[in-house]
Task: inverse folding
């Protein structure tokens, strides 16, 4: 059952899908329609999930579930992944490329491959203070506190030269 994203509690479980490029208005509209249909019908063990979604920065799709109302089972999570895979095909976009890293470059978002991180640090395109998006967030509250963090506090710190 769809619940507006802002009405879900901070402990709601989330899944963040990063796109490989910026979404245009037509794509965002299509995603919103399809995601709303999906979360309205999403169930776990024949029980409707209180769920929502948000499209952030035209680059990220966040799906959220209040698991205190009804937990998401493995099968229900699989359904959400299959739905995202279908949307990926429909829009000719990638939601599952884990070799990409998105960061703030001044006032805009940039995405590079992990293979380019070391070079980007050497060329000062990235610095220890660059804000990167952490793929490890698991709760809605994490979007405010642990999602956008300095590179030096992320798993990418291993690329920093000491």
Result:
């Amino acid at each position: 059952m769809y619940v507006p994203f802002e009405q879900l509690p901070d402990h709601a479980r989330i899944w963040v899908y990063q796109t490989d490029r910026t979404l245009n208005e037509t794509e965002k509209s299509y995603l919103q329609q399809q995601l709303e249909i999906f979360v309205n019908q999403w169930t776990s063990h024949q029980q409707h999930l209180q769920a929502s979604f948000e499209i952030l920065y035209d680059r990220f799709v966040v799906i959220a579930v209040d698991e205190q109302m009804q937990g998401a089972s493995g099968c229900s999570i699989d359904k959400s992944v299959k739905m995202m895979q279908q949307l990926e095909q429909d829009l000719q976009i990638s939601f599952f490329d884990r070799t990409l890293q998105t960061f703030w470059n001044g006032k805009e978002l940039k995405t590079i491959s992990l293979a380019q991180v070391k070079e980007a640090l050497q060329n000062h395109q990235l610095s220890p203070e660059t804000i990167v998006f952490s793929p490890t967030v698991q709760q809605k509250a994490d979007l405010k506190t642990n999602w956008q963090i300095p590179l030096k506090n992320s798993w990418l710190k291993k690329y920093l030269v000491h």
About this structure: The chain is about 30% helix and 25% strand. Residues 74-91 form the longest helix (18 residues). The domain at 5-91 is CATH 3.30.310 (TATA-Binding Protein).
